[in-house]
Input
Amino acid sequence: MTTAFEFLPHDLVADKVREAITDQVLFEKRPALHPDGSVAEGLYNAWITLNNPTQYNSYTTDMVKSIILSFRAASNMRDVVAVVFTAAGDKAFCTGGNTKEYAEYYAGRPHEYRQYMRLFNDMVSAILTCDKPVICRVNGMRIGGGQEIGMACDFSVAQDMARFGQAGPKHGSAAIGGSTDFLPVMIGCEMAMNSGILCESFTAQKAMRLGMLTDIVPGLKVDGEYIANPMVITEMKTDYMGRILHGDLKTGNDLAAGKALMKTGVMDLSALDAKVEELCTKLMLTFPDCTTKSVEELRKPKLNAWNANKENSRAWLSLNMMTEANTGFRAFNEGNREVGREVDFASMRRELAEGACWTQEYIDSLMPGARGGARK
Output
């Protein structure tokens, strides 16, 4: 038995203000479902969708603002069971910060980047402190800062063509926007080193095996039927979920055959949507306060590491915009397939060891193609 009650608003801004920031972050309330697929009247799941697919759903400054406000709004909605954080298309969940904006605005402006990193930190914290369980619906690549905001979520469900990884030291940064906090907790120190320093990405199958995912489902259909990712080595028994023993990329002729098979198929994310809805339903069938408290407690290893490091990480990343980030983000933005998108690391290291200074002229000289020819 309920009676009419006038609630006080606790949102930072009105919905129309949040929605006006950018059309590249979509907010939608979708009806919650019973196990039989029928609508649970009066209950919803909040879907926050990154909508910048032409740039692999990388987030701009305005997108970061909108993500923060969207998570705050979803957290305050009394009729919302869970939050689904996802992105448009089937190529990428998110590849991190928008490198065009980084290269053309923030490179060489550490004070501006420090302000941006306040927003970035607030975005990660908004996910980690959301009063609702947060599910990352991994529709494609989850790389760099995209991996960081994905790991801040409580659950991750992926289509099995997705890849996971970092890009920091390859492109002038360090994965200290969450990955250096979350990876050792989630997959162990050695594999965290492999991801955070060598920037070698994981298949969805390997991410599942390492404990980075809640579940995976097939995303590729050939002749109308789902098949497992043909690019990776898998061994399956009676069903797909929970039976992955391998997740490494195939090599040689097997890899070529996998690529050929992949070209005959089409991506279909309906299985991913069904698995996400299934998880949302499971969350609905719990006591809300007990679930919130459990989520808060289980987040503590990630949250404690994040809170211990986020401010000094922000300061370092800001200063790094004068040197390596200035160089790396510009190289990625200005490079291409012919000359590459990375600097000549060996020459750069030798020149720095000999006393080269981070002048604008020196940074310009490190750009792909600046010294003639493609990078070896």
Summary: The mean pLDDT is 93. The radius of gyration is 22 Å. The first helix runs from residue 15 to 21. The domain at 15-219+268-320 is CATH 3.90.226.10 (2-enoyl-CoA Hydratase; Chain A, domain 1).
